[in-house]
Design a protein that fits this description.
Layout (H helix, E strand, L loop, with lengths): L1 E5 L2 E3 L21 E3 L1 H15 L5 E8 L4 H10 L3 E6 L6 H15 L3 E5 L10 H9 L3 E5 L15 E5 L11 H7 L5 E4 L31 H10 L4
Parallel strand pairs: 1-4, 1-6, 4-5, 5-9, 6-8, 7-8
Antiparallel strand pairs: 2-3
Length: 235
């Protein structure tokens, strides 16, 4: 059984995000990038399914410019058996990504699509659901455990799964695996090759940083706490 895993290059979660002076977005130049943490969980789950003999081939797919190849190398180091780079410069919105990923899914004859539930750069939480809709497949989103959980969902394959934080803890990548991944060829395609037209349906008008947190106050007694809360209209 083939499994497709989408992996996205995002600003590393440890980086302190800065808004551009003109409010057109956040600063991405010169800052560390890495694989989206939720996609790491999706990749880890695919590898575990392969280790159990339930998946025979793992195909990592990413969309974006040349630097996205680093993300595919990480996926190969995790244990992906094949990597496909959909080369496209500029912004890629969720619907365009979903159309491209759905096209790869059909092209490869896969039975399972696993993705992180959302990417930490836009927190859109749309791509997995859109892929399922485009392929007319059952979907299990925000998966916390594949096989068992608080609520058990059974879906027929082929299917789409999006991974939540509780699903697993991604493995530590060993240097030999990282070096081996650098020698594996990556298949490059374009949206045109896949018969997909970019679909920019969302326009960002302005990006602003969160408001600065006001300075706290120290209270010594419960009465002072209650009085302070009443003064702020919170009690």
């Amino acid at each position: 059984m083939k499994a497709i895993v989408s992996v996205k290059r995002v600003v590393d979660y440890n980086v302190r995000i800065q808004v551009k002076p003109d409010g057109s977005g956040v600063v991405t130049d010169g800052v560390k990038h890495s694989m989206n943490p939720f996609d790491e969980i999706a990749m880890e789950e695919a590898v575990r399914l392969k280790e159990k003999g339930k998946v025979t081939e793992i195909i990592a797919v990413t969309l974006g410019g040349a630097k996205n190849e680093e993300t595919l190398r990480t996926a190969l180091a995790f244990g992906a058996t094949k990597a496909i780079h959909i080369k496209e410069e500029g912004e890629i919105q969720p619907l365009t990504a979903a159309r491209a990923l759905a096209a790869v899914f059909k092209k490869e004859g896969a039975s399972l699509f696993i993705a992180g539930k959302q990417a930490i750069d836009d927190d859109a939480n749309q791509t997995g659901q859109m892929v399922a809709a485009l392929l007319d497949l059952p979907q299990a989103t925000f998966a916390g455990k594949v096989d068992a959980g608080l609520e058990t969902l059974e879906v027929d394959l082929p299917a789409v799964i999006t991974a939540d934080l509780r699903l697993n803890e991604p493995r530590y990548l060993k240097l030999p695996d990282i070096m081996k991944a650098k020698r594996i060829p990556i298949e490059a395609v374009t949206l045109t090759d896949l018969g997909v037209t970019a679909a920019p349906m969302v326009m960002t008008t302005k990006t602003t940083p969160p408001p600065t947190r006001s300075k706290g106050i120290m209270v010594k007694t419960t009465d002072e706490l209650v009085a302070a809360l009443k003064a702020k209209g919170l009690a």
